[in-house]
Structure formats: structure tokens, C-alpha cells
Specification:
This is HNH endonuclease. By secondary structure, this protein is mainly alpha-helical. The chain is built from six helices and two strands; from the N terminus they run H-E-E-H-H-H-H-H. It binds zinc ion (ZN).
Length: 173
């Protein structure tokens, strides 16, 4: 017997689990990253370790978060992970992860070189947002919504930075 996403949400609304998610959209948004996405029913205890397919052993996660979720026979780890890493803001989690990934790949914070540059920072902000919309739209066309991983997002940030630097005659490190 299978359960629906709404049944899983209904079960956990009744059982306090201290998550920072909005239960009214929890049937359609990932409980970890908050993105609207096609959700997978992820077992708290894996089936191969005796976990059942009932609502009390399932949470709703997007494909990317399922891939990062702990798979352990002790259910406390999945809950600890979810509480520690879930995002209360919708649709920003993976951008922030991409920002962190940029630092790992390039060894510096993105857009840092603009701090000291003689440009109007308010208009730079607006330019940055406009470029981001363009760049993310391109990636979505290529890879499908909800599938950008942090390293791809880091590349998008690098492209935005490059365009801004060109436009304002700033040399990137
Ligand atoms: Zn997710």
C-alpha cells in the first residue's frame, strides 16, 4: 500500500518534529532546501534495514537532497541532518551552496574585487540581479528546473562576475 505526499505531511504535522518548514506547502516543496520540485518519498530508516513504506518512516525531499541525506539504520541521524541543514527561505538554498562552492573552486569570495572599484554599488547590485536572471534562465533551459548543483551554480556566478568585470573595466584576480 502506498501513501500520498499529503498523507506524509498530515502525519508529521501531527507529530512535532521541530523543522523550520512551512507545512502548508510541504507536499510540494522539499523539506530540506525548500525548492518547489518533484519530490521523492525518502525513507527515514532505509528499507534494507527494516524501514517501512508507511508515512511514519517517510519524508519528502527533492532528488538532490535525497542524494545528500544520511542513509543509516538509526533514524535520529536523518532528523538531526534535516534540522541542521534545512532552509526556512524558499528557493535560495542552492544559490548559497553555489556561493560556497565558488569559494572552494576559485579560492576567493565572488564579486570581492568590486568592493574597492569606483562603480555605483547600487546599480551594480541591479546589474548583477539582471545578469543572474539571464544566466540562470540559460542553465534552466539546458538542464531542467531544479537540477543545478552547487558547482554548476558556481560556474554561473563566475560568468556573471566576468560579464560585470568586462563592462566596468575591472581586472579579475
Ligand atoms: Zn531539496
Amino acid at each position: 500500500m502506498s501513501v500520498s505526499n499529503r498523507q506524509i505531511v498530515a502525519y508529521w504535522v501531527e507529530h512535532e518534529v521541530e523543522l523550520v518548514i512551512d507545512w502548508s506547502t510541504a507536499h510540494e516543496r522539499c523539506w530540506r532546501c525548500g525548492y518547489r520540485s518533484s519530490l521523492k518519498q525518502c525513507p527515514v530508516v532505509p528499507a534494507s534495514m527494516g524501514g517501512t513504506g508507511a508515512a511514519d518512516n517517510l519524508v519528502l525531499l527533492c532528488g538532490r537532497c535525497v542524494g545528500e541525506a544520511p542513509s543509516h539504520q538509526d533514524p535520529q541521524y536523518l532528523w538531526r541532518w534535516l534540522r541542521a541543514t534545512s532552509s526556512s527561505a524558499n528557493e535560495t538554498y542552492w544559490t548559497l551552496r553555489g556561493w560556497e562552492e565558488f569559494e572552494v573552486i576559485f579560492g576567493r569570495k565572488p564579486l570581492e574585487c568590486f568592493k574597492e572599484a569606483p562603480v555605483d554599488h547600487r546599480s551594480l547590485d541591479a546589474e548583477c540581479r539582471a545578469l543572474a536572471a539571464d544566466e540562470f534562465a540559460k542553465t534552466v533551459v539546458h538542464f531542467g528546473e531544479g537540477r543545478l548543483n552547487p558547482s554548476t551554480i558556481a560556474c554561473v556566478i563566475a560568468e556573471i562576475e566576468k560579464k560585470l568585470a568586462d563592462r566596468h573595466g575591472i581586472e579579475l584576480p
